[in-house]
Task: inverse folding
């Protein structure tokens, strides 16, 4: 496990935009959240995601594009910046 200054355990998150880089999550639940990943420096262990969207930025976005080149498919739906973050 990495050296994370912020750690969450058994926490619940709902209708939030959460930047996960630099943070550790253990057995957490996420519902209707925007999960933002840029560097990949996070630990997500035993977490559950319900109706969440993943937003890739920076290095994570570059890796997603490389995976698409190799697989000829998009591994994820990339959230367009024009989309509303949360449905009303």
Result:
């Amino acid at each position: 496990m990495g050296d994370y200054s912020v750690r969450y355990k058994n926490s619940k998150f709902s209708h939030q935009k959460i930047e996960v880089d630099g943070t550790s999550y253990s057995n957490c639940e996420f519902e209707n959240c925007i999960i933002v990943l840029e560097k990949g420096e996070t630990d997500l262990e035993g977490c559950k995601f319900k109706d969440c969207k993943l937003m890739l930025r920076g290095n994570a976005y570059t890796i997603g594009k490389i995976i698409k080149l190799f697989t000829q498919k998009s591994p994820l739906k990339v959230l367009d910046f024009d989309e509303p973050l949360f449905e009303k």
